[in-house]
Amino acid sequence: MGKPYTVKQMLVSMASGDTQPSDWTQHSLGIIENTDDKIGAFLQVNGEQALQRAHQLDDQAAHWRASLSTTGATTQGLFGIPYALKDNMCTKGMGTTAASQILANYIPPYSATVAEKLTQANGVMLGKTNLDEFAMGSSTEHSAFQKTHNPYNLNRVPGGSSGGSAAAVAAGMVPFALGSDTGGSIRQPAAFCGVVGLKPTYGRVSRFGLIAFASSLDQIGPLTQTVEDAALVLQYISGPDPLDSTSAPTVTEDFTRLLTGEVKGLRIGIVRDISAVGMDPQVMTAVDKAVAVLAGAGAQVVDVALPHSAYAVASYYLVAPAEASSNLARYDGVRYGRRVEGETLLDMYERTRSEGFGMEVKRRIMIGTYALSSGYYDAYYKRAQQMRTLIRQDFDEAFQKCDVIAMPTTPSPAFAFEEKSANPLQLYLDDIFTVPANLAGLPGINVPCGMSNEGLPMGLQLLGKAFDESTLLQVAHGYEQLRGFTMPSPHGLEG
Amino acid sequence: MEFETVIGLEVHVELNTNTKIFCSCKTSFGDPPNTHVCPVCTGQPGSLPVLNERAVDMAVKAALALHCQINQDCKFDRKNYFYPDLPKGYQISQFDQPIGEHGYLEIDVHGDRKRIGITRLHLEEDAGKSQHAADGSHTLVDYNRTGVPLIEIVSEPDIRTPEEARLYLEGIREMMHYCDVSDCRMEEGSLRCDANISLRPVGQQEFGLKTELKNINSFRFVQKGLEYEEQRQREILAVGGEVVQETRRFDDVSQTTLTMRSKEEAHDYRYFPEPDLVGLHIDDAWLARVRATLPELPMEKRDRYIRQYQLPAYDAGVLTSDLAIGEYFEAVVAAGADAKSASNWVMGDLLGYLNGRSEGIAATPVAAVELAELIAFIAADRVSIKQGKDVFKVMCETGKDAKTVIREAGMEQISDMSTLLPLVDAVLASNPKSVQDFLGGKEKALGALVGQLMKATQGQANPGVVNQLLRDRLNALKAVE
Ligand SMILES: [Zn+2]
């Protein structure tokens, strides 16, 4: 198969009149039709509805092109661009499951703010992608419904929890998909699937309608082929939302404005005191090489320290489960979703939640409930929050000396199915590079930085200052232009 | 052994905002079930709360009225527990940073003023209502009430008698009315009360083992329930027993308290800061804005009535028990009426009339100036007090003013000498027997003559004037003899 089209390419093509929205929707639906039985990225595809919407947009295409020529813009909105949503974002009238049995038949009465915004930007939603149940996991193996396979090697996981979105973009089914990132759930699958994945600053994108995993950490962001596409999509999903009190009062800015390819004079921080057990030397080499590429283009490399990052995973696995244990209390069989009848109210609760939730979700609810319990709160939850403050301060200090920080996204490339399911703790420890950004609320991005010996993508992670996505995207884009190779097409689907 | 009773109350007050605390659904009471609900207040996946600042205004106002210190930086927390009427599986409340702390409420106990400390006042959301089928087959839940803003007011254990508990609760209601933050209808659940009660030997510092009394649904039952519980505990302690620490409920049928749950079943609510809301900062300008809306508070007003109008404490208490009654009373006085007369009329005839119809002062058919006018007629002896009461009834029923009613009934009192003298002479002339009796020393005969004269004027003659005229005439006759 050929190189997948980007959002930008589609827009340029439609702007010139060569193609129209329904062409791209059909194109995407065709790829899904041909490949998703092998990949399993989608939980639900709404082809008919999408085509209907695309045809409506066809009728507006001439008007849209005219508006472009008067403003001189090449891309106004996400006009006619097909996309997918991770199935933990509510879509009115369309099933939203969070890949959980407990919500198997749930149809939301409202849409998430991001879904509304993308509709307003004239995107065409094709369907909902697979994830680890309630976004808890890093392999998408914890979906209650299906496995998603890594397009680069079908025997490997796509990462998670936004594995469906990452795989769908990697396989060219959609030029972009939204994911959510609580501890790396956008960046890690992006690294595994060889695509760009951006976790914006906490508060940049509204969480309204995102089925909560850990409210103080969750953030929605795009998975795309290119950094420029990530900037474009961010443009249309970000901004303050009166329905989300934690959305930040930011002003509109053009996230593509610094995408010049220029990195000269920018300071890249590298962290020597952060390390992972089982770190694959190939990944470290690839990241070092990426930093060298940036340095070669005039970026300045400086050492920074994140002394408390050693405690990041431990803190994360207290804060996130604690919030999750409370966020998931609403799935009680009373108002919506699955109910298993019981003899008494307590019996009904127990049966509903025992049968409705999967193993990993139960594990985290148990950890979180314990961490918040009377007598343990101070020792666990409170200390974890204090550690969070220290980690945030580490970053504040580090960013005095640099503009972005570079490090691997994951310790190793995509692993095989079931390879890590026997030891959840080891899998948790693999989050070492991604969780600090969530704990500190900072933006982070994965950019593919090479292929491993086994032919699997590896990822460079860049972290930026709070609400400075523009500089982060500038460096990511600069690297993408300078890296001197193009990502090979997903070969898992060949032959 | 002598025992002392120690009581603390936890009062929940529903704030009368138009919309709920975290969504824009209406707060109206009594509508068909689940007609004021949305994704937020039914806890749909992905929904988020947004704080209604009007609820903060009202909570701050109530806290200021109760002399609380305001925590200008506070936050919300989640109180986690499972119940079908709690859609999210947690209640958004305030745990360690309540909006108000360290306040007090003053009550009048048999003429003595007593200060009851208020530990804290915090803002939270209400839960829905469960309706259990009589046969236990099912439960229905109504989420209309879910998310209605509540304040919880926790008193210090300063209350010493069940009567004080009732007075305190009435004081809270009065204060909430004054601040116009709640209608405090216990029967509709917009005011709810739980009580902690324990006994200890007089002189002992530590508290005894307490029981918590729930399900108190009227002001009367607060006192009754606590009296029952006080007696029950006293009997246990008198024989050397130990009170079981537990939650009991007041059963209004048997008028007793019954065990609800023991302490072992107590919840661990796993409080933690609500991550879906940002910290609440009430800046100085906000606080000042709310403070400016505070009315004169009941106790201050009570003292002022006693001082300014020389009213008895009882009158001052009744007139200030409701903001609108006080306003009405002061309007009557402002229209020229004597304060004590105005007080008598308002407390007696007016409130009597309104109470008979279960109406409040707002429904008065007699405007304050109209009542003042009636009082002026009486003060000028143009109608008697007794007549005045009849006039007032007609005013209430017809909405006419005093002057009109008096004229139409031809009931104005005759005090004019030139009208009355010929009538007096006529009565004397036609009742020689009574005249003779009086002159013979029978004082009582005067009454008969007065009666004749009143009859001749259909009761309109001013009895005082008539009396004096008759006496003058008879004394003149006596002198002639
Ligand atoms: Zn609502």
In short:
Chain A has 495 residues and is α/β, with parallel strands linked by helices. Chain A has helices spanning 7-15, 21-39, 47-71, 113-120, 163-170, 187-193, 227-237, 281-296, 312-327, 345-356, 359-372, 378-401, 424-429, 435-440, 469-482, and strands spanning 42-45, 82-86, 124-129, 176-181, 196-199, 219-224, 267-271, 300-304, 404-408, 444-451, 457-464. Chain A is globular and about 65 Å long.
Commentary on this structure:
The complex is a heterodimer of chains A (495) and B (481). Chain A has 495 residues and is α/β, with parallel strands linked by helices. Chain A has two domains: 403 residues, Amidase signature (AS) enzymes, CATH 3.90.1300; 80 residues, no CATH class. Chain A is built from 15 helices and eleven strands. In chain A, strands 1-3-2-4-6-5-10-11-9-7-8 form an eleven-stranded mixed sheet, with helices on both faces. Chain A starts with 6 loop residues before the first helix and ends in a 13-residue tail after the last helix. Chain B contains 15 helices and 16 strands. Chain B starts with a strand and ends with a helix. Classes of the chains: A alpha/beta (495), B alpha+beta (481). At the A-B interface, helix 9 of A face loops of B. The structure holds zinc ion. Zinc ion binds next to loops of chain B.
